[in-house]
Specification:
Belongs to the ROK (NagC/XylR) family. The chain contains 14 helices and 13 strands. With 442 residues, the protein is α/β, with parallel strands linked by helices. The chain folds into three domains: 67 residues, Winged helix-like DNA-binding domain superfamily/Winged helix DNA-binding domain (Arc Repressor Mutant, subunit A, Orthogonal Bundle); 156 residues, Nucleotidyltransferase, domain 5 (2-Layer Sandwich); 152 residues, ATPase, nucleotide binding domain (Nucleotidyltransferase, domain 5, 2-Layer Sandwich).
Length: 442
């Protein structure tokens, strides 16, 4: 879980209903370890679990049976590569029961709150987004309003699935601020980071069992590791290019934060010549157009004229940049130069094998990235990292938040399932008096 501290961990159960039923089997360390193997894999058989854990077949099957009875796993009809591995009796195959619960990912941005709800294997089941009224200046936003909007967005997404907080195994939150391993953010200039943080971690922990907060770019990196362009990578940087620039850094397989969560903060770029500061791509595009052109200087129907006449949003302009268009070419080349310098800087500082450009701009920036690849400096003495664009689009931060919640919740999902079982399946006196069968949850 990349060193997530106790402040971000799940609330543990405190007596009551859970402890009123015998749960010794499901709380065994062996059962938790078997779940851990399944949690990080796809369809598997007892042999797979035994190879990873060193357990005997009897212990493995007993744990798998307990997890099935608890509702967290199910038997699967194997297909494709997961066929029978030899002659004789066909193997039994198992997998996480995706619909056993849900994970929630929240991006608490400075202009909107975006939510995804996924099942336990990461399939998106619901999306919600709500704008923040009067978002500028962002450092003056009301933190009470931010908390209310965030909690309402999550509740609305769950309500659409006829679910509530008790169905949520884990909830992740991403904010545009440094976040340390305690879930805390520093003040920032004019208090911006604390406003973005808005004590959301503490607020959500009142209603949700497992909650984790991270910087938004760090969550973009987790999304790429779980769902995107970094599945096989141990050393990579995700450059989140949204309203500003931020980096999510994974080295030796671990998300890197630093003492106060500032490892991926790129504000220092404002002091580095040639990289255009830490402004977001859309901001750079708007600034360039407004400083170089008037609407009446552009042909009717040109995207930039429509933008200057308030008939086209600036977020749509990046896709129209063309190196062969005499109007847009200067900006195209300026952005290619900027990214080339950024990539050289990130490669020098972090030594990644891959740099992934993520966020809302990723789908429109392919030609610019190709030009930037050709312009990177070759005199650093280090092999150049691979440069790729993310395919996760606007969902990259919420998906990363859900993935972060899943990492955190693995250690507590058995307790969560026991609570749900005990609340919904009260045993009768006859059932309570009947000894449990081997390999099952009583």
């Amino acid at each position: 879980m990349d060193g997530v501290s106790v402040q971000q961990r799940c609330r543990t159960s405190q007596g009551g209903a859970v402890d009123s039923i015998p749960v010794r089997l499901v709380r065994r360390a062996s059962t938790s370890q078997v779940l851990g193997v399944a949690w990080h894999g796809g369809t598997l058989c007892a042999d797979d679990v035994m190879e990873h854990t060193g357990f005997t077949r009897s212990t493995t099957l007993q744990a798998l049976g307990a997890l099935i009875d608890l509702g967290l796993m199910e038997e699967s009809t194997a297909t494709g590569e997961a066929g029978n591995r030899g002659t004789g009796r066909p193997a039994r195959w198992f997998r996480i029961r995706a619909e056993a619960g849900v994970l929630v990912g929240l991006e608490a941005g400075h202009r909107s709150m975006s939510v995804v709800v996924t099942d336990l294997v990461g399939e998106v089941r619901a999306r919600r987004s709500v704008g923040i009224p009067d978002p500028e200046p962002s450092f003056r936003q009301d933190t009470t309003v931010r908390r209310r909007l965030a909690m309402a967005a999550v509740a609305d997404a769950l309500r659409g699935l006829e679910l509530g907080p008790g169905d949520v195994v884990g909830l992740g939150i991403g904010v545009p601020a440094p976040v340390d391993d305690q879930g805390c953010s520093p003040e920032g200039q004019r208090g911006f980071w604390r406003v973005m943080h808005a004590d959301l971690l503490e607020s959500f922990r009142q209603d949700y069992r497992c909650v984790r907060m991270e910087n938004d770019a760090a969550l973009a990196a987790l999304a790429e590791r779980h769902f995107g362009a970094a599945k096989e990578q141990r050393n990579f940087v995700t450059l989140l290019a949204a309203w500003g620039l931020g980096a999510g850094v994974v080295l030796d397989g671990h998300l890197v934060r630093g003492a106060r969560g500032g490892v991926g903060e790129l504000g220092f770029l404002d002091r580095v010549p040639g990289v255009g500061g830490s402004q977001g791509v859309h901001e750079v595009v708007e600034k360039f157009i407004r400083s170089h052109w008037r609407a009446d200087q552009l042909a009717e129907g040109h995207p930039w004229r429509e933008f200057l006449e308030d008939r086209r949003p600036r977020e749509s302009l990046l896709a129209d940049l063309n190196a062969d268009d005499p109007v847009t070419a200067p900006l195209f080349h300026a952005l290619a130069d900027r990214f080339a310098n950024l990539f050289t800087l990130l490669a020098t500082v972090y030594d990644p094998a891959r740099i992934i450009v993520a966020g809302p701009v990723a789908g429109d920036i392919g030609a610019i990235l190709e030009a930037a690849r050709q312009r990177r400096r070759r005199d650093t003495g280090m092999p150049a990292p691979e440069i790729v664009a993310s395919s996760l689009g606007h969902d990259v931060v919420p998906l990363g938040a859900a993935a972060a919640a899943r990492e955190l919740a693995m250690s507590e999902v058995i307790e969560w399932a026991l609570i749900r079982r005990n609340l919904t399946q009260r045993p009768t006196q006859d059932e309570a008096a009947t000894p449990p069968r081997a390999g099952s949850v009583p």
